[in-house]
Every structure is written in C-alpha cells, then in structure tokens.
Amino acid sequence: MMRCVRIFGFALCLAPGTVWAGNQPKPAPNVLFVLADQWRARTIGFAGDPNVKTPHLDRLAGQSVRFINAIAGMPVCCPTRASLLTGQRPLTTGVFMNDVPLNPQANTLAKVLGGAGYDTAYIGKWHLNGDGRSRFIPQERRQGFDYWKALECTHDYNHSYYYADGPERLTWKGYDAIAQTEDAGKYLRAHAASRKPFFLFLALGPPHDPYSTAPEKYRALYSPARIKLTSNVPAGMRDTARELLAGYCAHCTALDDCLDALVRVLKETSLEQNTLLVFTSDHGDLLGSHGGRNKQQPFDQCVRVPLLLHWPAGLGTRGRKLNALINSEDFMPTILDLCGVPIPQTVEGLDYGDYVRGGENPSDGATLISCVAPFGQWTRKAGGREYRGVRTLRYTYVRDLTGPWLLFDDQKDPGQMNNLVATPGSADLQMKLDAILNRKLLEAHDQFLPAQEYIGKWGYTVDKEGTVPFEP
Predict the structure, then answer these.
(1) Closest CA to 125 of 71, 166, 78
(2) Is residue 25 reached through a cis peptide bond, with omega within 30 degrees of 0 on the bond before it?
(3) Which of 117, 154, 167, 199 has the greatest count of CB atoms below 10 A from its CB?
(4) Considering 56, 78, 127, 249, which one is annotated as catalytic?
C-alpha cells in the first residue's frame, strides 16, 4: 500500500517501508521490541547493581540511548502491556487489573505500523486476551500482529506452551526464553532481505518468579550468601531476600545472553544499522524491599524499569543517558515518531521522539503512578490499597483514599525509607506536590474513586480478594 505525503501542495507517494526525511525519502527503521517481565531498573549491571552479571546489556547500554527514569505508571503486567501497545492510560483501556481483555478494536502499535507497510510479529507472553491463560487466541484478538507464537500467560518456563495459527498447543523446547529468542532470530533472518520493514515484539517471561527455575548454568553463578542487599530490606526478610535475588539474577543473566544472541543476528544479517531495538520491562519487583514481594506498590523497585533504545543509523552508537520521566503510554507515540509514522489521535502519551534525537524534553517534569484496584499478592488483607501519585525527578508523592500516604526525597533517600508526609518542614513541599498530583489527575480525567466503582463500570467480576478469577 502506497503512503502519500503532501509537500507544497503536491502529493508525494512513498512505497511501503519508506519515510520522508528532509530532502529525500529513506527506509523506515525496523522495530525489535524486547519486553522482560518484572525486571526492575536497579538490578542490572549498567545501573550499578553489585550482584547481577549482565555484560551484554552493559555493552549495549554504552552504544544506546538510555532512559534512567523510565516508569511503569501502573506497575503490574496487563495494564503496562495495554498502555505500551495503545499509548493510552489504564483507565482509558480498562486494563487496570490482570486477566481482563484489551478491546479487540483498540488502535494499537501493531495496527498502526501494519497500516504503514510493516510486517508485524509477536512471540512470547501476551496477557491481554482475558479469556483464560492457556486458551487459543484467535487472529481477530491479536491486535494487529500477523506472525504469532504466543500464549496468554505462563511462568512454567521449562514446560512452556504456545499457539501459532491454529488451536494446536505447541511446546517450546527447554527454557522458553531461549527458545523464543531462537525463533525471533529465525524471523530476523527470514526478513533480512525484505523490502518491507518489520515490527517484532518479543515478550519474555523471566525474571518473573518462580525465581529458582533458570537453567542450572545460570543458577550456579549466584550464591545467596554472596548477595548484597540494599538497606531497605528489613532484618527479618534478609535471608529470604538473598535466596530470591540469587534466582532472580540467574534469570536476568539468562536474558542477557538472549539479548546478545539477538544483537549478533542483527549484525550477521546487516539489520542492525536500521533496526530500532527497544529493551524494557513491564514493571519491577520488590524482592524483599520494604518487606514486600512482587509489584503494584508505589516504591522505586516496582515502578522504575530499564529502557534502552539502540538504532545506529538513527541515533548513533554513542551511549547517552536521558533524564526525562517517560511512562508506559509514551512508548507508542515515541516509536511511531522515530519510524516516521503519524501518531493517531487516540494516543494519550507524550512523544519523546524529538527528545531522543537531541531536542526538547516534552515532559513537565512529573508523571502519574497509580493502583486502581489492588489484587493478587497485594490484596487488602496484605495491605493493598488504591493510590494515586506523582514521580518527579527528585520526589515520589502518593495519596491513598484517606489522604497523603508517602513522600520521599529520592535524591537524598534512594531507599525510600524516610516518609516525609506530615513531618516538620515538609508542609510546603507536600502542598506543592499535592497540587501537581491534582493537576495530573485532572488532565487524565481520573476522579480517584474506590476500586469497586471502576470494576463495576467495566463489568468485571472479582473474588473476595479483589482478583479477577482466571483459568490456568
């Protein structure tokens, strides 16, 4: 399908796979989007973690644009995935809990890029169908992806299944992240000579728990006794946290090898120069910090995620750190901008494309974080609560339904151990951040109502713990 660009009153029609750049059209970049599950920003070598071994990602970071303040605004699986694909916030998509469906009519990144001439492909964990975690997902519910080897959700990484074009359940051989990476490599090789650009989304399950299931060669690299903990892990949980982190790091190192395998294929096929490689995660993991586990909570270990953009032809190979806050809904418009594809009006996120190229930061210096409905591991019985908050470059401020809950100076207190809410000398700062939060909620059309209001609006059924029941 030809695309036309109007210049000085004349229509210039471009063949599929080209974008207009200055005086002449140039090939649109391929997009390889690699999404890890539950990989927090700090547990990675280039972020200064003393435990984990990620040499390949460390080297890639030195050749990439790195966002050091990438935020999962609602730090849980399905909401982030829906926002990444639609450029919309969770209260707009309705995906503010796990195991609920993204509307099949949603305007997604795959549909927009497909309409611009891209081949589209998805491999790995989907978690956007909301109809059982092991059921076949028909093509009309794949949100614009054509090549398809995916399963709704599993964390049994060594006995992992998927579906392709038919309802026959197929099996990944061995540790699924490695097998899925190999399949992605085959896809890259098959498209190396194509005149059409591609959008390949690889969604890997690790390092999400269970933490003890990485291949033995990776587990052997980590002894719990040698794991160094941050100060915000309480004394009574430190032994458990070391065990968790040893297994977590093993998964991370396995994925580091997977990223290396993908980069090697890009180099071997001469795809690297014009492929935008995106590496990130859907949310983080407490792993004992603040006495908790997993996600949903407003702490740094949950909401901050790694983000690398690697595209030699478009961004160069000089490593750059960008300070701006970028949230989940900002990924779609930013990728479309970098691909030279118009951004649909349905998008609510900010476009960081020009900023990535060296232009102005489009952010006002604050971004929303939220939990609409606590569920799963963070039920009300376990202390779960609705909250809305803002992250700025220095502060984290959070309200629950009763009022101000948390205020941290993340610069002076990176472990977020000193809650400044209602403390002497913090009144002006708290008032200022509260005003920013109110403005952000108004912009997002978020009334901050109790969870049941939103659950009822979208017609979801939850159990007594507030969780949407699902078939395994």
Answers:
(1) 78
(2) no
(3) 199
(4) 127
